Amino acid sequence: GAVVSQHPSWVICKSGTSVKIECRSLDFQATTMFWYRQFPKQSLMLMATSNEGSKATYEQGVEKDKFLINHASLTLSTLTVTSAHPEDSSFYICSARDGLEKLFFGSGTQLSVL
Amino acid sequence: AQTVTQSQPEMSVQEAETVTLSCTYDTSESDYYLFWYKQPPSRQMILVIRQEAYKQQNATENRFSVNFQKAAKSFSLKISDSQLGDAAMYFCAYKKSGGSNYKLTFGKGTLLTVNP
Asked: Phi and psi at residue B86, in whole multiples of 5°?
């Protein structure tokens, strides 16, 4: 099946710094990618929809200036958490859509902000 | 707005036995997709099974099958011959069909424990 690579798998950063997370579709072109956030023992909450070559669409309550999304190519989307604070600590997961209405997930990134 | 409800926060099953996980959803759409995803301790989301609403036949994938009741808006997952590797969090999810909307709405999940 299709593979979505997410990097890094975990990251620790200091409060106030920015962190970039990459999501790549390895064997298919993904015109649309999605970014989710998951708190411990909770469900996935959609943060934003990333469309190649256009601005991301953010869900209500998600700060677009805090969570910058770039989808510059058909195989890569990035999420940058700017000026991270401890409350941004969470598990972030991306997913990518292939041409057959199927979604494939990355392996996730655990962000810990000290 | 669409909602997905999983009423069982936790379930347990004996190895080799059968277990059914419940899911109900609310939508005004007539065509849509329903999914069950598995999230093991590695936290990788794995697609277990997919059902298209316009298909009356219940989807099956080896030991996994669904009972899709469109009128009742119910979409339960049956796991037969449960194995230790089936232990995971299971999420039911909904997606509108067609157009440019590929947004998944997830339920809160059911934690499945498989006892040896």
From this structure: -80, -10
- In chain B, whose CA is at the least distance from the CA of A5? B44
Mean pLDDT of A60-79: 92
| pLDDT tens profile B10-69 | 999 999 999 999 999 999 988 899 999 999 998 999 999 999 999 989 999 999 999 999
- CA dihedral sign of residues A104, A18, A63, A112: positive
CA angle A63, A66, A72 (to 5 degrees): 100
Q: What is the pLDDT of residues B98-115, one digit of tens each?
A: 766 678 899 999 999 999
User: CB B102 to CB A32 under 8 A?
Assistant: yes
DSSP assignment letter at B57: S
List the one residue out of B101, B94, B71 whose CA is nearest residue B25. B94
- Compute φ and ψ for A33, nearest 5 degrees: -130, 155
Cβ of B102 within 8 Å of Cβ of A102? The answer is: no
